[in-house]
C-alpha cells in the first residue's frame, strides 16, 4: 500500500523533473549546437582540399579545348573539394589577402542558390553587448561653425544659381537615370542625385524618382550582382537615401535606407567585426576575416550614416558597428610607421600567424588567442587575433608603407570629426561608463574559442586615458602639416601649398636602440587631396584650432592656381619638383641640365639622415625617430622618359607635358574636391574671395565642357575628359560638384554647417535631432 503510494508520488515528482531535464537539455543542445559541431569537427582529420585557387581558375577558362568527360570529371572533383571547403569554412574562417584571391569566386559556378537561405541571415559572430548610442548632452558643446556675417551677393549670385541649376537639370536629364533603372542592379546614381534634385527645387523630378526608388526591394541586391562594394553602396545608396529623407521627410526613403543598412551589416559579420569591403553576398564561403589588404578610410565609410540611422530608429546595432571599427582603429594608432596616420593599405584581419612550433607547444590555445583559419591557398593555419589593424607584411617582413591624404585616407579623420558633431559632442572613441565596459569584457571572455573577440583593451583602467577624437584628429593633422605639406616649383612664381604622399622605411639602429623611420616625400599632387582643406577648416571650428584656417586657405588657393595653369582642368596626378628658391619659380635651364645629367633616373637610395623632425617614445626601451630621407624629390621614383630635347625645351617622349611636371595623369574636369574646399572656406570664413574663385571655376568648367563636347546646334553633353569623350559624367558630378557650386551661391543660412554635416559622398545629415 504505502509502497505503491511511494512509487506513485515518486513518479509524479519525477515527471516534473523529467520535463525539466528535457527542457534544459534541449535548451542546452540548441545553445551549444555550434560548439558541439566545432568539437566534432576537431575530432575529424584536418584535411582541407589542397587545390590551388589559381590553377583551378585556369581550368575553368581552358575548358573549351578539353574533352567533355574530362570536364565533367574536373567539375565533379572541384565540386567535392568545394563541398569539403564549404564544410570546413563553417568552423574556420578564411583569411584572404584581397577580393581577387577570394575562393568565393570559385563557387560562383556552383551556386545552387537558395533564395530563402539568402533572405534569412544568421550571424556567425554576433555582438553580445551592443554599444549604445550616447544620449545627447545638455551641456554639450554648441557648434558655431559658419561665419557670423556674409556680404550680400545680390543679382550676380542669383544669376549664378540659375546657371548652375540649368546645367544640373540638363546633365540630370541627359543621364536618363530614371529610364536606366532596371531589375539587374540598384540605381545608385539615381539615389545619389536625389538630394541635389530637391535642393535645386526640382520637385516633380524628385517625386518621380522617389516613387521609382520606393518600389525597389533593398533587402537583398538583385541576383545579377556578385560583389557589393561596401563603401560605394554605403556612400551613395545609404547616404543618398538618408539625405533625401532628411530634406523631404518622406518615410518611404527612411524605410529603404533601413533595408540597405540591414543588408550592409552582413559585411560586418567577421571575427573582429571589421567589415569586408568587397562583399560576395551570395557566397557560401561567408565565414571570413576582413581582407588583409584593406583601405582604412573605406573601413570607416559608413560611420556617419550608421550613427544617423541609430538616432532615427533608436536601434543600437548600426552605431555599434561603426563604433567597433573606430575602436579597432584607436587600438592601432601606433602600429604603423607614422603615429596617428594610417598607410594606404593595411591588414584589417588583425591576424598574426602563429608558427607551427608554437602550435605544437599548444601556445595557440593558451597565450595567443589563436583561431584556426584557412588561408587563400586553402591550408589550415593558426591566426593570433591582435584586435588591431596591423602592417602588411611579405613573409613576415614588414612592407614599405605609403601614406597619403587621398579622399579615402581623409575620410578616416573627417568621419571621426563629423561623428563628434553628429553625436553632439559625444565621442565615438569613448565608452560611456565603466559598468558598460566590464559587462562587455565579461561577454567577450565567455565567447567560444572561435568567436572570441579581443578588439579592445581588457582592463577597465585602460579606458581611463583613452585618446579623444579631438586628440587623434589634431595629432594626425599636425603630421600632415609637418610631413606632407610642401611647396612645388611652378611657373606661378609663388609659394603655393600642396599635399604630397609619403613613403616610409624603418630601420633599427642597434647601437643606440633607436628605431629610425625614414620618410620620403613623393612631391606628387592629386586634386582629390584638395578636399583636405574642407576638413581642416571644419576642424578648426569643431575642435577650436584657428590656425588651421590659414593652412586650409593656402591649400585651396594652391589647388585653384594649379587648375588655372591647366586652363581649368585637373590632371588626375602630377609629380613635380620641390621649391628651391624664395619665390618657388621654375628654372627651365636648371631643369634641362639636371634631366640630361640623369638626375631623375632611379638611383640606389642609400641615404643619410638629415633632420630629426619628430622624436617620441613608443616604449621605454626604444626611441622612434622620424627623419626625412636625404634623397628627396622625383629622383626617388623610377621613370624612363625624363629626357629633355635641348632645342625645343620639351620632354623627348612627351612634348605635351610642361617641363616643370615630371609625370602626369589624364586630365579631368568634373571632380568635386576643389570646389568642395572653396564652398567650406566660404561658409566658414565668410570671405567673398571664395565666391569669386568659385565663379571663375564654374566659368572655366563650362567653357571646357563646351569646347570638348561641341555638338550640332550648340547642344553639348557633359562628359568626363579622360575616357576620350565617351565617358559619361560620373555620379559625383550631380551629387557633389554641382551641389557644392550651388550651395556656394545659395543663401548661406540654407543647409548651414551649424545644422548639418556633409558626408564624404556629399550627402547631408542633420546634427540636430
Ligand atoms: C599661408 O600662406 C601665407 C602667404 O603665403 C603664409 O604667410 C602663411 O605662413 C601660410 N600659412 C600656412 C599655415 O601655411
Ligand atoms: C613657403 O611657405 C611655407 C608655408 O607658409 C613655408 O614654410 C616655406 O618656408 C615657404 N617657402 C619658401 C621658399 O619661402
The total count of strands amounts to 24
Mean pLDDT: 82
Distance between the termini: 76 Å
Give the strand order, joined by hyphens, for the main sheet.
9-12-13-18-17
Low-confidence spans: pLDDT under 50, at least 5 residues?
36-75, 433-465, 602-621
Small-molecule binders: 2-acetamido-2-deoxy-beta-D-glucopyranose
Q: What's the multimeric state? A: single chain
Largest sheet: 5 strands, mixed
Please bin the fraction of helical residues.
40-55%
Report the radius of gyration as a whole number of Å: 29 Å
- Work out the strand percent: 5-15%
Shape type: globular
Note down, in words, how this protein is organized.
Its EC number is 3.2.1.-. Helices cover about 45% and strands about 10% of the residues. It is α+β, with helices and mostly antiparallel strands. It has a domain at about 475-525 and about 575-665. The strands form nine sheets. The protein has a five-stranded mixed β-sheet with strand order 9-12-13-18-17. A four-stranded mixed β-sheet has the order 1-5-6-4, with no helix packed on it. The protein has a three-stranded antiparallel β-sheet with strand order 14-16-21, with no helix packed on it. The longest helix is centred in the N-terminal third of the chain and has 30 residues, at about 1-30. Mean pLDDT is about 80; it is low at about 35-75, about 435-465 and about 600-620. Bound molecules: 2-acetamido-2-deoxy-beta-D-glucopyranose (2 copies). One 2-acetamido-2-deoxy-beta-D-glucopyranose binds next to loops.
Amino acid at each position: 500500500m504505502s509502497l505503491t503510494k511511494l512509487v506513485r508520488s515518486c513518479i509524479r515528482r519525477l515527471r516534473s523533473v523529467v520535463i525539466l531535464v528535457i527542457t534544459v537539455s534541449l535548451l542546452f543542445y540548441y545553445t551549444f549546437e555550434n560548439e558541439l559541431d566545432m568539437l566534432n569537427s576537431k575530432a575529424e582529420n584536418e584535411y582541407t582540399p589542397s587545390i590551388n585557387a589559381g590553377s583551378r581558375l585556369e581550368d575553368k577558362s581552358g575548358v573549351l579545348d578539353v574533352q567533355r568527360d574530362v570536364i565533367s570529371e574536373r567539375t565533379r572533383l572541384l565540386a567535392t573539394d568545394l563541398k569539403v571547403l564549404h564544410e570546413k569554412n563553417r568552423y574556420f574562417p578564411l583569411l584572404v589577402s584581397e577580393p581577387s584571391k577570394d575562393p568565393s569566386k570559385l563557387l560562383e559556378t556552383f551556386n545552387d542558390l537558395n533564395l530563402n537561405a539568402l533572405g534569412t541571415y544568421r550571424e556567425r559572430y554576433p555582438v553580445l553587448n551592443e554599444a549604445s548610442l550616447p544620449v545627447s548632452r545638455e551641456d554639450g558643446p554648441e557648434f558655431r561653425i559658419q561665419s557670423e556675417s556674409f556680404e550680400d551677393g545680390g543679382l550676380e549670385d542669383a544669376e549664378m544659381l540659375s546657371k548652375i541649376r540649368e546645367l544640373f537639370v540638363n546633365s540630370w536629364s541627359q543621364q536618363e537615370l530614371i529610364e536606366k533603372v532596371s531589375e539587374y542592379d540598384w540605381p545608385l546614381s539615381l539615389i545619389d542625385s536625389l538630394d541635389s534634385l530637391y535642393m535645386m527645387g526640382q520637385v516633380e523630378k524628385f517625386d518621380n524618382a522617389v516613387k521609382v526608388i520606393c518600389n525597389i526591394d533593398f533587402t537583398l541586391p538583385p541576383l545579377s550582382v556578385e560583389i557589393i562594394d561596401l563603401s560605394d553602396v554605403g556612400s551613395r545608396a545609404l547616404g543618398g537615401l538618408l539625405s533625401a529623407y532628411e530634406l523631404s521627410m518622406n518615410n518611404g526613403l527612411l524605410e529603404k535606407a533601413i533595408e540597405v543598412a540591414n543588408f550592409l551589416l552582413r559585411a560586418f559579420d567577421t571575427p573582429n567585426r571589421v567589415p569586408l569591403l568587397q562583399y560576395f553576398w551570395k557566397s557560401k564561403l561567408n565565414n571570413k576575416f576582413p581582407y588583409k589588404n584593406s583601405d582604412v578610410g573605406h573601413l570607416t565609410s559608413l560611420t556617419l550614416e550608421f550613427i544617423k540611422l541609430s538616432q532615427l530608429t533608436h536601434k543600437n546595432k548600426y552605431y555599434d558597428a561603426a563604433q567597433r571599427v573606430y575602436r579597432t582603429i584607436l587600438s592601432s594608432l601606433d602600429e604603423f610607421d607614422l603615429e596617428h596616420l594610417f598607410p594606404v593599405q593595411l591588414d584589417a584581419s588583425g591576424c598574426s600567424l602563429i608558427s607551427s612550433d608554437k602550435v605544437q607547444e599548444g601556445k595557440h590555445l593558451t597565450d595567443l588567442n589563436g583561431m584556426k583559419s584557412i588561408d587563400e591557398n586553402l591550408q589550415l593555419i593558426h591566426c593570433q587575433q591582435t584586435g588591431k589593424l596591423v602592417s602588411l607584411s611579405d613573409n613576415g617582413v614588414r612592407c614599405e608603407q605609403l601614406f597619403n591624404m587621398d579622399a579615402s585616407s581623409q575620410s578616416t579623420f573627417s568621419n571621426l570629426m563629423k561623428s563628434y558633431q553628429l553625436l553632439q559632442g559625444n565621442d565615438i572613441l569613448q565608452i560611456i561608463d565603466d559598468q558598460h565596459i566590464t559587462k562587455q569584457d565579461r561577454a567577450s571572455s565567455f565567447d567560444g574559442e572561435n568567436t572570441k573577440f579581443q578588439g579592445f583593451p581588457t582592463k577597465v583602467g585602460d579606458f581611463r586615458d583613452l585618446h579623444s577624437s579631438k586628440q587623434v584628429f589634431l595629432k594626425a593633422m599636425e603630421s600632415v602639416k609637418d610631413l606632407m605639406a610642401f611647396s612645388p616649383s611652378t611657373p606661378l612664381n609663388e609659394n603655393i601649398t600642396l599635399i604630397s604622399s609619403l613613403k616610409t622605411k624603418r630601420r633599427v639602429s642597434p647601437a643606440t636602440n633607436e628605431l629610425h623611420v625614414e620618410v620620403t616625400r613623393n612631391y606628387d599632387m592629386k586634386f582629390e587631396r584638395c578636399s583636405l582643406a574642407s576638413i581642416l577648416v571644419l576642424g578648426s571650428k569643431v575642435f577650436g584650432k584657428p590656425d588651421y584656417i590659414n593652412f586650409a586657405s593656402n591649400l585651396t588657393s594652391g589647388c585653384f592656381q594649379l587648375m588655372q595653369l591647366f586652363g581649368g582642368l585637373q590632371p588626375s596626378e602630377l609629380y613635380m619638383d620641390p621649391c628651391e628658391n624664395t619665390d618657388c619659380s621654375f628654372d627651365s635651364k636648371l631643369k634641362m641640365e639636371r634631366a640630361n645629367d640623369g638626375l631623375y633616373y632611379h638611383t640606389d637610395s642609400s641615404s643619410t639622415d638629415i633632420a630629426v623632425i619628430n622624436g617620441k617614445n613608443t616604449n621605454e626601451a626604444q626611441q622612434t625617430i622620424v627623419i626625412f630621407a636625404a634623397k628627396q624629390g622625383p629622383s626617388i621614383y623610377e621613370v624612363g622618359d625624363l629626357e629633355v630635347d635641348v632645342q625645343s625645351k620639351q620632354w623627348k617622349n612627351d612634348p605635351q607635358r610642361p617641363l616643370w611636371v615630371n609625370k602626369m595623369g589624364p586630365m579631368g574636369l568634373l571632380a568635386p574636391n576643389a570646389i568642395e574646399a572653396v564652398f567650406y572656406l566660404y561658409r566658414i570664413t565668410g570671405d567673398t574671395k571664395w565666391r569669386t574663385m568659385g565663379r571663375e571655376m564654374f566659368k572655366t568648367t563650362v567653357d571646357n565642357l563646351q569646347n570638348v563636347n561641341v555638338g550640332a546646334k550648340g547642344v553639348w553633353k557633359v562628359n568626363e575628359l579622360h575616357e576620350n569623350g565617351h565617358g559619361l559624367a560620373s555620379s559625383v558630378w550631380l551629387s557633389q560638384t554641382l551641389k557644392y557650386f550651388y550651395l556656394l551661391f545659395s543663401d548661406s543660412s540654407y543647409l548651414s554647417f551649424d545644422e548639418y554635416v556633409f558626408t564624404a559622398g556629399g550627402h547631408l545629415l542633420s546634427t540636430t535631432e
